Prior knowledge:
- The protein is an alpha/beta fold.
- The chain is about 30% helix and about 25% strand.
- About 45% of the residues are buried.
- Bound molecules: hypoxanthine.
- Hypoxanthine binds near residues 113, 191, 235 and 243.
Amino acid sequence: MIEKIKQTADYLRSQVADIPTTAIILGTGLGSIVDYMDDKQYIPYSQIPNFPVSTVEGHSGNLIFGRLGNKRVIAMQGRFHYYEGYDMKQVTFPVRVMKELGVDTLFVSNAAGGMNKEFRVGDVMIITDHINLFPESPLRGKNDNSLGPRFPAMTEAYNKELVKLADQIADEQGLRIMHGVYVGVTGPTFETPAEYEYFRIIGGDAVGMSTVPEVIVANHAGMRVFGLSVITDLGGKDITQVPSHEEVQQAAVVAQPTTLAIIKELVNRC
Ligand code: HPA
């Protein structure tokens, strides 16, 4: 795997003059952060050696190098989900490449279903921790010590300083911001009412089908991580409303001003 990572990183270095140290993985419906980037250079996944190609509607599939405010960033437009059939090494390959390129801070965003009874559709939740319910770890198999330790700690999977800074920004700008634990599951089904209830009881505030694999690998690689979930629907034992893919996209649009403000400001201050 290490050769593939280096080959992909070499290709990107040959295409991009100034490689940023900050990367953002854009989740469902949050892609419009790209509209706020300047000096953009698009590299389609299909042109990047060893990169999987993304298949889901609403995920375009580009690495975008550019500036967000005064900071250079790499934006990943379109991510690879386990439910699409990619294996865990494919899902997390871009994070390995980012690390090889010198990225030390990773921002992730996603759409999630809310179990916390305080949450409303369109809320934005700072991910303070996660519960990994994927059937497989991206670190399963022989460990390459040059990529990270065999048994990495996950005690601060989401950097506390960045959470504090985000809270400060939300406070300054008068933005409603929630905190919570993200439960990562395979999908692609939304949860049954009993499952939402179960995830709430075990300590989850929101549930989604991404993020956890990338965050595990980023931590393995020693990167700082900050994550946001957009609450696109609510789930629980008394809630029988069925979220459609379109409603999820719509709620993500509603939350956009908040996610944009937080990410833009945080990227520039950290
Ligand atoms: N469950 C799982 N994933 C999701 C949900 C949900 O309710 N909403 C958006 N992504």
